[in-house]
Amino acid sequence: MTAKKKEPGFDDKLAELQRIVAKLENEDLPLETGVALFKDGVALSKACRQQLETAKNEVMICSKGLLEPFAAEETGQNKDMSADHGDEGLPF
To answer: Tell me, what's the pLDDT at 45?
Structure first.
């Protein structure tokens, strides 16, 4: 059985992005190498941006007290929906 590769964390991705930027800025690279590094940098930048946006949303939810426990009790509306749409109670 093979072990799953652990995805690099935000700090690792950011460090790799900084390494790529430095290499692109400071080295005389062949065009193909430069383009490949640029593509890798764009992908890392996108991944970092997504992680930051997720973290921002989580902090906002927690700080505003918007996180509430899920109540699994049925309401009158859910009972009506299950009668119209079978046992699932789904609105579609």
So the answer is: 97
Complete domains list, the chain, with CATH: 10-68 (1.10.287)
Q: What is the pLDDT of residues 12-51, one digit of tens each?
A: 999 999 999 999 999 899 999 999 999 999 999 999 999 9
Dist. CA 68–CA 75, nearest whole Å:
17
Show the tokens assigned to 4. 């799953």
Residue given tokens 């930048």 in the structure block = 45
Structure tokens at 24: 């692109």
CA–CA dist 59, 64 (Å, integer): 8
CB-CB contact of 52 with 9 (8 Å): no
